[in-house]
TrEMBL record, chains A, B:
GO terms for biological process: methylation; RNA processing. One of its GO terms (molecular function) is RNA binding. InterPro entries: Alpha/beta_knot_MTases, MRM3-like_sub_bind, Ribosomal_eL30-like_sf, rRNA_Methyltransferase, SpoU_MeTrfase, SpoU_subst-bd, tRNA_m1G_MTases_N. PANTHER family: RRNA METHYLTRANSFERASE 3, RRNA METHYLTRANSFERASE 3, MITOCHONDRIAL. Belongs to the class IV-like SAM-binding methyltransferase superfamily. RNA methyltransferase TrmH family. Keywords: Methyltransferase, Transferase. GO terms for cellular component: cytoplasm. Residues 45-122 form the RNA 2-O ribose methyltransferase substrate binding domain. It comes from the Eukaryota. This is tRNA/rRNA methyltransferase.
Length: 285, 285
């Protein structure tokens, strides 16, 4: 474990800069709150004992872990102690609770924050069920959908268009660690995304209020991708054109009581739940 | 329509007090942000053109509607004008945009806020599918679950234990107006709630990670109630005791990838989606 000197320095991999990380006035680690920094450094911030533990379980190795001695000594410190046992001592750095708090996005940080390499992967060659997020903009929805996808057996999450960053602190928290458990892929344009999906033989489906097919009428046991659009705008223009020309099949969650739409994360969950039921139960009726 | 005098007064029904509502320094209408005031006055605040329109569509008559002339004159003012056509002129009061904003909980209010009677109802005698919220504490989850319930054909939402108030501005917004479209009932203790449900012949189900029965194995076409517990704690102690002694049947959404739980609103949606599928599709396999 490294010292508790006030001006502990850290050199991010691939960077020539020494960062002053524990000075209360200069927590430059906090730059990873910004997507641009995450993208350029290929690193993400993981806040709190639970999430850092999830990252380790997923096989990720932190470059740096800031831990506050106050949190270690607190009533809930045993989980944090157990976490430290699993870490290489040369990445752990003791820092004041204030310093950890400043590095974090959360209002009530839990005394630990880690820097880990961002696990963005290429789309696996074999995919049976994919969730495609097309411009999902709310970090809570993004994280919740990834959590649901991991839980319900989705093989890959594909993020296309103007999606919020899954690796933002808020989306990562909403994923409850699931971001580390399901392969996620950031692609470029919708066209590129569609070609990646079609090359793997996936049939494409998207929610469309005017569709004739109910979501439970789709044979989800066949290789499939569910496309979920943005909360405010729905599908991107390019994806909508593919829907109009039948490249994507529109499906409908039948709605009652004059309700016009569902929350995006809820709509995705209902369809993925039906896909799971068919795949595990072996029927589609 | 009433005047734009700076010190417009309003006497809430059943109250002796004249309220100064349009003074920028004294927006006492804002007291309805607090549950205690909503409970004592039996009134709720409805913010924004869309939600006020939803309230009217549901047959609710506002006591008071504050509208800002600036919003009426703005590019998006036509929907607001259309809304005003539907209102009795003696409840509409022009007020400065600042005054409307101060009355609202939203950061970006849409120039209109209404006071309406809170439509809390007794549990209907005939219920085929109920959603029971047992201590749901997050207003976003509360509103989202009510929106989902209305959309998927739930007959009644029952709120028991330490639930957040469905009529708080944030929960009401998350419900996207669905709070006005599905009967909702606040009950007292779990025991009272259970007796109300059982008196209507409803079979009780609740998510329980250790249960043997998958959620799709339940015959949802029979009169049923799904109980969803709090995000952090799950079911209340009293409901958990009923689960342990078999009065509530535990059901399980099978989870993969080491994910331990789902977001409460997502879990509720997946089960209600399956209930809807069975009820509309006429099968439970």
């Amino acid at each position: 474990m490294r010292s508790t000197e006030a001006f502990e320095l850290w050199r991010p991999p691939g960077s020539g800069d020494l960062l002053d990380i524990t000075s209360p006035t200069n927590p430059r680690i906090k730059t990873l709150h910004k997507r641009k920094s995450r993208d350029s450094e290929g690193r993400v911030l993981v806040e709190g004992c639970r999430l850092v533990t999830d990252a380790l379980k997923a096989g990720l190795s932190p470059d740096l872990v800031l831990v506050s001695p106050e949190a270690l000594a607190s009533p809930g410190g045993s989980a944090l102690s157990a976490l430290l046992q699993r870490l290489s001592s040369d990445v752990v750095c003791l820092a004041s609770g204030d310093c950890v708090a400043r590095a974090c996005d959360t209002v009530s940080p839990q005394g630990v924050v880690a820097v880990v390499a961002r696990p963005l992967l290429p789309l696996p060659e074999t995919v049976r069920l994919a969730l495609v997020l097309d411009g999902v903009s709310d970090p809570g929805n993004m994280g919740t959908m990834v959590r649901t996808a991991a839980a319900l057996g989705v093989d890959a999450v594909v993020m296309t268009g103007a999606c919020v960053d899954l690796w933002s602190p808020k989306a990562l928290r909403a994923s409850m660690g699931a971001a580390f458990r399901v392969p996620s892929v950031a692609t470029g344009t919708w066209r590129e995304t569609r070609e990646l999906l079609q090359a793997r033989g996936l049939a494409l489906y998207a929610a469309d209020g005017g569709a004739a097919t109910a979501h439970w009428e789709v044979p989800w046991s066949k290789p499939s991708a569910l496309v979920v659009g943005s909360e405010a705008e729905g599908l991107s223009q390019a994806a909508r054109e593919d829907l109009d020309r039948g490249v994507i099949t529109g499906i409908r969650i039948p709605l009652s009581n004059g309700v016009e739409s569902l929350n995006a994360a809820v709509a995705g969950a209902i369809v993925l739940g039906e896909a799971q039921r068919q795949r595990q139960h072996g029927v589609n009726t």
